[in-house]
Amino acid sequence: MAAESVEDIESFLWAKVKALKPIKIICRYVERDFAMSWSIATLKRRLREFGITYYRSESPDDVRRAVQGSNWVWSLDGWDKLKEFDIYVYGGIDTFSRRLLWLHAFTSNRDPYIVAKYYFQFVCSEKVIPRRTRTDYGREATIIAQCQTFFRRNHGDDYAFSRSHQYGPSTLNQTIESWWSRQRKLNSQYWMDELKELVEDGLWEKHNVIDRWCLLYTYLPLFERELQELLGDYNSHKIRKQRGKQRPDGVPEDMFHFPEMYGGSEMGYAPLPQDLEEIDRQFNLSEPLPRFVPNAVQLLCDEWCQRNCAQISIRNACTIYTRLRCYVNSNM
Q1: Residues with Cβ < 8 Å from 68, sequence gap 6 or more?
Q2: β-bridge partners, 282
Q3: pTM higher than 0.70, yes or no?
Q4: Alpha-carbon separation of residue 332 from 296, 317, 329 (angstroms)
Q5: Which residues form the Integrase core domain (predicted)?
């Protein structure tokens, strides 16, 4: 299935289900309009992947209410366009409201403990667990999947326990995938260009550990701050109505907290305190992230910045990096 056609197929299936079309008829429409021959089992699986519940006996409005609402699905994924510089991003988005749940930069988005910390800390701060989480295939989501299925083990809905986490290809994780292209335009392209210039000017060598440490010290906290500002701005802007989309228009932050005002409902569950304690006991997810540069390098960089009254910003990051690089090289 081509990536560019996924949203079209999703909108198509929404419309057919809302129109109460029989499941066999929907299969025929798919074959006619998309030249794909799906069995009934395949169609049902695709409906589940898109978060569409098929209620043949209900009215169209009942179908719409059954499948929409905040915390219905959290779409989670990583962004690796700066991996050459050891900077990785991992984010989560609510598929109903399109609210960005978290967006963090660190030295890995492949470590299951690191990405699970983001999930766990958001669950603790918001006091909610989603009905389902959706990720790409990969080991980085293994602990998130364990946490999600543990939290949902005693619920009685159709997506309880093992069905509360869904693995799938990135083409079926379009909500977060579409965000990455937006982020690149709004934020990341600037950093990609700046770091590429360091390479072209001979100021950064991939196999030089001091270059890597000094770059992380300079750019990673700055990039993280930029991401948090971007997250806040995005969640407070208004999403306009899109033709053919079965999603509400409005401000993501408002739609997430007040879904009933946008034709949805709250689909999440409150986590039990004892469950949070058990997960933290097993995985230590409330612990802060590890240091991303060695202590000796951290101390040298802190010392230089304090001595020179240097505060790292977008405007001076390149200059500070080059000076730190020389200072650490001469003192290590």
Answers
A1: 96, 246, 247, 248, 259, 263, 264, 265
A2: none
A3: yes
A4: 9, 22, 6
A5: 67-245
Please name the residues in contact with 212: beta carbons below 8 A apart, sequence gap of 6 or more: 85, 86, 206
Residue 104 three-state SS: strand
Token couple for 185: 């335009």
Dihedral sign (CA 241, 242, 243, 245): negative
Give the burial string for 221-247 (b: 16+ CB within 10 Å, else e).
Answer: ebbbebbeebbeebbeeebeeeeeebb
- Output the CA–CA distances (angstroms, integers) from residue 196 to 80, 170, 180, 192, 219, in the order listed: 15, 27, 19, 6, 13
Q: 92 forms bridges with which residues in the sheet?
A: 76, 102
The Cα 52–Cα 73 span in angstroms is 11
The length of the chain is 332
pLDDT class of 116 with cuts at 50, 70, 90: very high
DSSP for 212-278 reads: HHHHHHHHHHHHHHHHHHHHHHHHTSPBPP-TT--S--B-HHHHHH-GGGGT-----BPPPHHHHHH
- The token duo for 252 is 């993501």
- What is the C-alpha radius of gyration for the chain, rounded to an integer number of angstroms? 23
* Close Cβ partners of 103 (under 8 Å, ≥ 6 residues apart): 89, 90, 91, 183, 227, 228, 230, 231
- Residue 2 is predicted with a pLDDT of 44
Beta bridge partners of 91: 77, 103
Q: Which residue has the higher pLDDT, 260 or 246?
A: 260
28 Cβ contact list (under 8 Å, min separation 6) = none
CA gap 87, 219 in Å, rounded: 9
* Closest of 291, 110, 307, 316 to residue 217, by C-alpha: 291
Question: Collapsing DSSP states into helix, strand and coil, what is residue 131?
Answer: coil
Give tens-digit pLDDT for 241-252.
Answer: 766 566 788 999
293 backbone dihedrals φ, ψ, rounded to 5°: -135, 155
Residue 109 is given by DSSP the state S
